[in-house]
Amino acid sequence: MTAYVPPVADMSFLLGDVFDFDEKMSVLPGFGDINTGLATSILDEAGKFCARILEPLNRPGDEQGCRLADGVVSTPQGFPAAYRAFVTAGWAGLSGAPEFGGQGLPHVLQLLLDEMLSSANLSFGLFAGLTRGAAETIFHHAGDALKQQYLPKMIQGEWTGAMALTEAGAGTDLGQLTTRAEPCGDGTYALHGTKIFISSGDHDFGGNIVHLVLARLPGAAAGVRGISLFLAPKFLADEAGETGLRNRMSVGALEHKMGIHAQPTCVMNYDGATAWLIGEPGAGLNAMFTMMNAERLFVGMQGLGIGEAASQKAVAYARERRQGRGADGSLGPVPIIGHADVRGMLLTGRALTEAGRALGIWTALQMDIAARHPDPATRREAGGYVALLTPVVKAACTDFGFETAVKSQQVFGGHGYIREWGMEQYVRDARITQIYEGTNGVQAMDLVGRKLPMENGDPARRFFALMRDDLAPQAAEELEPARRAVASALTRLEDLTGFVLSRAGDPRETGAAATEYLHCFALVTYGWLWVRMAGKAARNSSPALARHKLAMARYFTSRLLPRTVALESAIRAGAADIMAADDALL
Amino acid sequence: MTAYVPPVADMSFLLGDVFDFDEKMSVLPGFGDINTGLATSILDEAGKFCARILEPLNRPGDEQGCRLADGVVSTPQGFPAAYRAFVTAGWAGLSGAPEFGGQGLPHVLQLLLDEMLSSANLSFGLFAGLTRGAAETIFHHAGDALKQQYLPKMIQGEWTGAMALTEAGAGTDLGQLTTRAEPCGDGTYALHGTKIFISSGDHDFGGNIVHLVLARLPGAAAGVRGISLFLAPKFLADEAGETGLRNRMSVGALEHKMGIHAQPTCVMNYDGATAWLIGEPGAGLNAMFTMMNAERLFVGMQGLGIGEAASQKAVAYARERRQGRGADGSLGPVPIIGHADVRGMLLTGRALTEAGRALGIWTALQMDIAARHPDPATRREAGGYVALLTPVVKAACTDFGFETAVKSQQVFGGHGYIREWGMEQYVRDARITQIYEGTNGVQAMDLVGRKLPMENGDPARRFFALMRDDLAPQAAEELEPARRAVASALTRLEDLTGFVLSRAGDPRETGAAATEYLHCFALVTYGWLWVRMAGKAARNSSPALARHKLAMARYFTSRLLPRTVALESAIRAGAADIMAADDALL
């Protein structure tokens, strides 16, 4: 198996040549000295860490898994040392708030680091991603005392974070959760309850583990309005401020999972754990959404990272593996990368992955603009794009990441099914990204039910207009068919959006349309990005790269974009046929 | 987790109400007394065996896996006893030749047994399927002495079979294989070589294990024309005719796989193993195709069986699991089967599974007709359908089986990712069915490159005409939109077939079209079958079942059939965009 090669060249191409990174950064206060050259050298270093330290632990970590003995969780060999090295090198704090010791670099660099972490070692990357999400929630919602106590250590990665939302009876529907928080009279609360599926719930990296826990105060309203958010650390501060005292929480079990075996997914028991309220009583879900939104983009990058790693390895294998005759009739055996059916699988993986990266970068740039641009209207507009695209990045990059992992595994034939080759791990690991942080069905409902209608539909309309402007006729004639195909698909998407919104009053109609609509939206967006990438490459890149990006753009629009037609048909059929089937006879 | 319920009612509906089983059997010599009632009671008993004996071993078998110690393979606890019970009950010989102790029942019953075996325990079913394929090859190609010696025990399942084709450097491209067969001068041969991925290569069920091995004779031609087929048993007959002597073959290793852990997939070393030639020198691949064609239908049923089991369990879970508000706005929590997005996943699984079963039954009926019909033209015609549809059944039922397993797992949310719930095993197990017995890419190339053009395209033309005749206007008005949609998709498929065949001279064009074409062919065929099922249910079934099948037919045609439009666009784009991408930049 060839080693993972961090795709820094493509990242650099996207930042500098496709998305005018230097110009965008130059207008953001504090980012004036950040440019593509600097970003590339940071990504280069980060990529080396991922490829040299983390990827070699990926398969052994999968085989060895985590263990729970006498209440203590052990991660696979090498993980604690790698985590310490990750923190020492400063990668944990890349985009963290400088006032708490972070490096304050742009979100877009964080996102690309996340992709590489995920390509190299999904289980490992999850520790870092959850810590960042927890820290962000504390940053935005907790009081100063909690911030001062927790953020410096969390932002630098010394301490890690975990999100404790799900219970056996409350998954997608958090309104059903039953964990209780009893006021102790001294400003603290005692948590009682059991949470499941708690990633990074415990580990052996040292340092504290900061659990953000959703629970109900006494007399709280039923449903989601009665949910508050609490902070419960594994270790409490003793009188000297050291973390000496074990809090009353414990790992009930480790979940046995399909994949991400090196990630200790815990059943957590809170048996009177001391906790502090974050934000207002009853506003827990609101605070949790800060965490979830950050995590959703992160999970999108997990899907993308798996797709990148898997498709890279499939391409490398197809270059070496010789089977069958050549297309010119030569006896062979020839490298299978020359067989059109194998190439189709490879190109699908590459086309989905590179466009997904472009979408991730574009969205993260909007996050940076939303956070720093001097003009409030520009900030608001960028924030609208981020809100609109978060469910799209999460669901599309993970669905397409899984598709890419499966197709890449297929390229290996029987070897793809054998553990030693590593391809089947990508499929097993990728599968969780479609499920957690809100299933992709939940993402689709979020897009159709909340994000399209928000602000009277302005963000969606603006986004469509932005794509349309950018799709104005290109110079290169060879790109015209692709450009026209995407422009026409965009027109259909806009009509379809109107159709979907006109039926939004009936949850059956929204549910029947949501997943297909999200995929349609994502494919049109990917089409726009392919035309943009090919157009920019024609102007800014070497002739060879320009030709290649043109071929990829044409491949995407002729082979993958047509899926939108099928999706549109399905959506326009509405909910009636879905609801008519007889439950008892299914 | 609910228990698997053998879908005997649907099988009985398909045989009796949809495909005129009694009438078809009545004209086949020897099958005059076989009818739907008899078939149903046989399937009922077989289903009980699968549900009661085999399914309880499925998850433990996955957890425990197979072991190799001191050259001896152990299957998981309970497997040897279950296998003996399977043989004793007579299930191994259901469709075997009566002259060798088989029961000689129709292929269609065998196919439905295969589906249920696969639903209950894919790893277990593979032992039976491979034995049958090996026996069939011996039956058709070996001399009388070998037949007399091996077939009685194999057909009754006392002895098992294995196919030894693949080598590390020779997978899809068998022409590269290097295993040698040296004549010993006494009519036997000594085999030297190493084969990989040998399912059922060894086990602890007792009895002999009959390996069919592809190898080269000295001086054989290069490529596939130099390949011969040999029979090498694990135990040789001693002078008393007992199987006392160990042949010179050994298990080099067990493969570590993504799934089917209870199936001992072996690396086999043949170190001068005594073997007998089957058929003519150099005709090995031809003989092996007998085995592979039987196995391909079997593997299709494996994919179907996994889809059936997974979607059954998803439906059962969705009936019980309560999350979220009702579609009528009621507070809930309501069973998630009422949520349109969940229903969409469930209905997709059911629609693909039930149509796949119909396709399997129709194809197996043609096998029975091809084997027994008194009229040679009818036999030839039926044989053409079987040849045409074999790659479709294999690839479509496994691709859709995998899709169904993934969607069914998704219905379980986070629980779907947890091993104890059993859903992730279906995904892991299903994945092999898309890869082995010729990857689904190979099936697609077989359909487009060999089966469409065979006999000047007659079988394909006849099959399209048959579907068109059957799609003549129905009585039920509610079925009209579905019928029209399928009829129109069929017209497009026929045009598309001409387009694909017109480019068949260029392997790049064939490769670029093959997978999408096979899916398009399968979806149109499924559409025809849904219209037929709904139409027959309207005439022959209870009003409730008729309404349900109508809803399913409408669901299939409005939500899944439109995929054909996207596939057609992709196919018509041709190979140019696939070939243009720069290998070095992928």
Helicity range of chain A? 55-70%
> Helical segment tally of chain A?
19
Q: Which structural class best describes the helix and strand composition of chain A?
A: alpha+beta
Number of strands of chain A: 11
What pair of chains forms the biggest interface?
A-B, 100 and 99 residues
Shape of chain A: globular
- Residue share in β-strands of chain A: 5-15%
How many angstroms does the end-to-end distance of chain A come to?
44 Å
Low-confidence runs of at least 5 consecutive residues of chain A: none
From the structure provided, what is the oligomeric state, counting identical versus distinct chains?
A: homodimer
- Tell me the major beta sheet of chain A: 7 strands, mixed
Describe the structure.
Chain A is built from 19 helices and eleven strands. Chain A has 586 residues and is α+β, with helices and mostly antiparallel strands. The first copy, chain A, has three domains: 8-154, Acyl-CoA dehydrogenase/oxidase, N-terminal domain (Butyryl-Coa Dehydrogenase, subunit A, domain 1), CATH 1.10.540; 160-284, Butyryl-CoA Dehydrogenase, subunit A, domain 2; 439-586. Chain A is globular, with a radius of gyration of 24 Å. The two termini of chain A are 44 Å apart.
